[in-house]
Amino acid sequence: MAWQWFHKLGSPRWFYEKTSRWLTWFAPLSVALLLVGLTWGLAFAPVDAKQGNSYRIIYIHMPAAVLSLAGYYLMAIAGGIGLIWKMKLPFMVMQSAAYVGAALTALTLITGSLWGYPTWGTFWEWDARNIFMLILLFLYLSIIMLGRVYPVREAADKACAILALVGTVNVPIIYKSVDWWYSLHQPASIKLTGSSSIHPSMLYPLLLCIVAYYCFYTLSLILYTRQEILAREARTKWVSELVNTQSSHTKD
After folding, report:
1. Residue 90, number of CB atoms within 10 A of its CB
2. Segment among 99-108, 116-125, 171-180, 243-252 with least mean pLDDT
3. Reported confidence tier of residue 249, pLDDT bands at 50, 70, 90
4. Distance (Å, rounded) from C-alpha 227 to C-alpha 69?
5. Is the whole model's pTM more than 0.90, yes or no?
6. Which residues neighbour 6 within 8 Å (Cβ) at sequence distance 6 or greater?
7. For 16, 154, 180, 247, which has the most beta carbons within 10 A of its beta carbon?
8. Domain boundaries, the chain
9. What is the reported pLDDT for 245?
10. Using CA atoms, how far apart are residues 214 and 211, in angstroms rounded to an integer?
11. What SS3 class is residue 52?
12. Radius of gyration of the chain from Cα atoms?
């Protein structure tokens, strides 16, 4: 009985039914937080003394970077759970996280380039952090492609999980790249220990944006995982009943 909750987490049907209730309130909450945070940062935060208004892209760039790194850990952990306990749902979460993570990493690189031009005078520099963020994007894309090319689903899941776990070594390198090598990137603006280098009037909307991105990431991951469940469990009885029920409601 003590581990019943854990085995429920491995049930695709339990996850699908449970998240159906969550989405009714979590989806509007995530969108609202994102709109408020971005509006506050992009329109109402003060102008930076050195960078002017160009710094405002931080409210899109930094939360995306934070989630692209944290999301990789989540993806790798899901893959590890799937390998160890041989559960189906963690593998579905892993694949879904790869799509969301790839999109966030691409957004990080694009917004970083747009921010880099007025700051550094170039859209791209072979800076250590840029290089390892690009590697992160390739890791996400590799996991997506591995999941598609293998003809056997179980083999694809295992290969993706192993690659995800091996790739975790890249994440701490990204975090520490500005300390280990000469970098055009500035050190972290938000610090868990000590005072942050960003003014509170700019910091508070940034923190709200990070929270909003976490919520939106969770929402996106849930939606992708639900689609993955329907695709993989299409031949099961409960999915067939669900599709028939939805079809009858549509006709009515």
Report:
1. 23
2. 243-252
3. low
4. 23
5. yes
6. none
7. 16
8. 29-44+56-181+215-243
9. 83
10. 5
11. strand
12. 20
